[in-house]
Write a structure and sequence with these properties.
The chain is an all-alpha fold and 96 residues long. It has one domain: Methane Monooxygenase Hydroxylase, Chain G, domain 1, CATH 1.20.58.1000. The chain has 3 helices and no strands. The longest helix is centred in the middle third of the chain and has 32 residues.
Length: 96
């Protein structure tokens, strides 16, 4: 993954961490339950969007681009078939 893409993903993860910390603050401040639930929903949505972005980049770089040199070091020794099995497994956990 290139540095620009990595930087964007890290920024998204930092925003998500801020949202989760916001949930903790809201609980500490005894905020209205519905407001806390709305913040939790926003954090979950942001996590889902981050997951979709990571999955898309994984498919592009590691699975479809396998053998081109742009894949992660952990993907290099695997075949495309093994990578697809791995994607199926992670998708089943991600979509629960």
């Amino acid at each position: 993954m290139d540095d620009g893409a990595r930087k964007k993903l890290r920024a998204r993860a930092s925003r998500i961490a801020g949202q989760v910390a916001g949930v903790q603050r809201m609980l500490d401040e005894d905020r209205y339950c519905v407001d806390v639930l709305n913040q939790i929903a926003a954090a979950r949505s942001a996590l889902d969007a981050l997951g979709v972005e990571l999955l898309t980049r994984h498919l592009e770089c590691c699975v479809l681009g396998h053998g081109g040199g742009g894949e992660h070091d952990r993907a290099k020794p695997m075949s495309q078939e093994e990578l697809l099995v791995e994607v199926r497994s992670v998708l089943s956990r991600f979509l629960r």
